[in-house]
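Following up on my earlier message about guanosine-5'-monophosphate. Here are the inputs again, as you asked, copied directly from the submission form:
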Amino acid sequence: MNYMKVKGSIVVVSGPSGSGKTSLAREVCSELGDKAYFSISTTTRPKREGERDGVDYFFVSKEEFLEDVEKGYFLEWAEVHGNFYGTSKIQINKALEEGKIVFLDIDVQGHEAVRRAYPDVVTSVFVTTKDKKTLIERLEKRGTETEESIKVRMINALHEMKKIPEYDYLLINEDFNEAKKFLTSVAIASLIKTSKYDIDKFIEYWKGNK
Ligand code: 5GP
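Thanks, got it. Here's what our run produced:
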C-alpha cells in the first residue's frame, strides 16, 4: 500500500539577491546527486555575462513568456525587479514522482504560490546576510548590477525580509560551508515530513490490514 501522498519533496529557497541563496541551493543540490533536482526557471531578464541558456535560466522574450503563461505551462510565475520569472510544471511533477528533492530558487511571491499548490510537500528556507551592509558589498563585488539595479534590489530585500515568518527556516549565510550543512540537513529532512504521509493509510499498513 502506498501511504506516501507524494514521494519527493520541494525545498523553496528565497532571499535577497546577493544573499548567496542560488550558489547554496545549486551546490547542495549537486552534492545530493540523483536524489535531488534543481528547477531551472524561465525569465525575460537579460542574460548576465557568464550565464548560459538552459543552465542558469531559460531566457525568453516577453511575448514567449506570456504565451507560456496562456498555455498553463507554469506552476507559478511572478514579476520580480521588473522582469518575469516562472517555474515550469512538468519537470517538477516528474521529479516529485521519482522521489526527488526539488529545489526551487524563487522569490517570496513564488513561495506563497507553491505552498498553496503543494501545501503538504513544501519546506522553505529564507536565506539572507547578517546585515544590509554585507548585502550591498556582495552585490557591488558581483559586478553584474548597475547602481540603479542595486537600489531596486535593496528596496525589494526589505520587503522580502518582512515575509520571513512565512518560512520554515531562516538561514543567515555568514559561512558558506556552515550554511551548506544546514541546507543539506533541511533538504534531507524534508523527505520525512509528517504531512507527506497519509497517516490513516500508514496505520492500516502498519497493523497488517493491507
Ligand atoms: P536574479 O535576476 O537575480 O537571477 O533573480 C531575481 C529574483 O527572482 C530572485 O529572488 C530569484 O529567486 C527570483 N526567481 C528566479 N526564478 C524565479 C521563478 O521561477 N519564480 C519566481 N517567483 N521567482 C524567481
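One observation from looking it over: The mean pLDDT is 95. Hope that helps, and feel free to reply on this thread.
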